[in-house]
# Entry
Amino acid sequence: MPHQLKPLPYPYDALEPHYDEATLRLHHDKHHQAYVDKLNEALADHPEVADMDLEWLLKHRDELPARSKRKILNNAGGVWNHDFFWSVMGPAGNGAGGEPSGKVAKAIDAAFGDFAAFQEKWKESALGVFGSGWTYLVKEDGMATIKEFANQDTPVGVGAQAVLAVDLWEHAYYLKFQNRRPEWVDSWWNVVDWEAVERRWTAK
# Structure
């Protein structure tokens, strides 16, 4: 069965004013949809892997058909990254924004000292991503770690448990923030859904 674009888990205007409706519509309906479409195109000529889910495709790169491997990985990664990204955001003031609590907060404090220090390291990572890519918080051996991923590479591809992510492709923020990535990262904290992040952290 072809891969499908998942609907957003909230209305297009739900993340205003921190993540504007116009950008969210374009990002989800055009850019995310394009990854889905191109993934299905890449898989169409390879029935042996066409029915595999995203995580299988990303984990079994050596089993992908050689002539389509890069196209499959790029677009499967694009779909997976965006699915994840939407899932860890929510309306500011409705459970999103502020600071984390629970086990993920303890893990952040243990790894970085406190939440403010974590935010500094996160921003340093996000601003250091060259070109397009992602900054992720991942869980490895029970520890919180910040990792950078170029283009549409994913934590799945390196066996890491994803917990939080910010999209650093310019299409994610360009309509409102133009080339001002630091402002985008600062604004994005207001829509981080820490309850969703906690669920990601405690998932097996």
